[in-house]
Amino acid sequence: MAEMLAGAEPAVFRPPAPLFDLETVFGWISVAHPPHREHTARDKLAMLHRSWGQDAASPPLLADPGRPAEMIRDGGVLLDASGHLPRARETFDAWVARVRAKLGGRFGMQAPGLECASWQGHHTLAGLMQDVLRTTGPRTFRYNAFVGDYARTPFGFHVDPHQEAVFQYTLHGRREALFWNALALGEADTAWLENPDPASQPGRDPDFVFTLEPGDLVFWPGTYAHGMQCEGPSAGLSMVVDRASPRTREQVISSLETQTAGGRCAMPAVDEGVMVEPGTTLVRTAVFPLAYERFDDVLMLGVCGRTLDWPDPHSIAAAIRLVDALNGAREHAVDELMAEFSDHTLPPEMVCEVLSIFAGLGFCSLS
């Protein structure tokens, strides 16, 4: 999954073994989003009674998904979804038939935060995302299920600017995934983006189209507008990584500085006169390794108790490979580093410039 993230474009992968099964995920929805939680009248009455000094039963302690489930019909969100949520031990097929009959047509549901339903599901999510989170740095991440009987994503083709990446596993049904690079979209595209009308047509051809079967894992970066077109009832489970770091920039800086200095101590002056050139050899002199972390869209580097921002977002992947290599050995020939780690995003002269900065900050010296 980390390899898909590094590709920076939508892609499909079929895992060698199933990641999830439909009924287990559907059971998570009934635990994380029980109907009685969504119907708030009981809690409001209890709150009123307690505020006026009357006895009232304390609300039960429930798993907390963070956000309520959303039930959508004809492009609109139902204010009270409680009567349409899955019941305990109800199967997916039975739920679809019941809700279709009750609403009199096609519908969709978004159910976030399913990692709160069980430790098994929680640990599975963490295990699948651990390599991705090593690349992005700490992030808010979650399950987000999309289930129902809809011909097209119920809230239309859309973009989620707060998301870093999405990995969606097809649980049930055949669906077509459409993607547009949203960085290339403009004002004219707002006429069809976020339009829940199923008759609305995109104003331009998608950049990527994939046909998905149960067992397929599709990835897309948060910079892509997207939507699904489904054949009959369908279910997909997304693993979403948000862009925002759960820590402040100051906390990230403090962490990187302490990691790369082993704690807190006085720092020598930066040597701005060091120039690393081709044909030379670098020898690591630092006790503690380089460290890095993604903060929102920036790669922050820790070097011997100091931090700096990587200057170019397009070469972050190359920068991470270079840092990992520098940490992996005591000596490096500069020519070999230039040959191995320079690419179309990181030219050879920039490799030398970065190595000069690292040397000036005390990580290595020239031999």
What kind of assembly state do the chains in view correspond to?
Answer: single chain
Helix content: 25-40%
Structural class: alpha+beta
Number of helices: 10
Give the name of the CATH superfamily of the largest domain: Jelly Rolls
CATH structural architecture of the largest domain: Sandwich
Distance between the termini: 40 Å
What does the main sheet amount to? 9 strands, antiparallel
Q: How big a fraction of the residues is strand?
A: 25-35%
Form type:
globular
- What is the count of β-strands? 15
Uncertain runs are none
On the 0-100 scale, what is the average pLDDT?
A: 91
What's the level 1 CATH class of the largest domain? Mainly Beta
CATH-defined fold name of the largest domain: Jelly Rolls
Whole-number radius of gyration? 25 Å
- Tally of distinct domains: 2
Keywords for this entry:
single chain, 367 residues, alpha+beta, Jelly Rolls, Malonyl-Coenzyme A Acyl Carrier Protein, domain 2, 2 domains, nine-stranded antiparallel sheet, three-stranded antiparallel sheet, 30% helix, 26% strand, globular
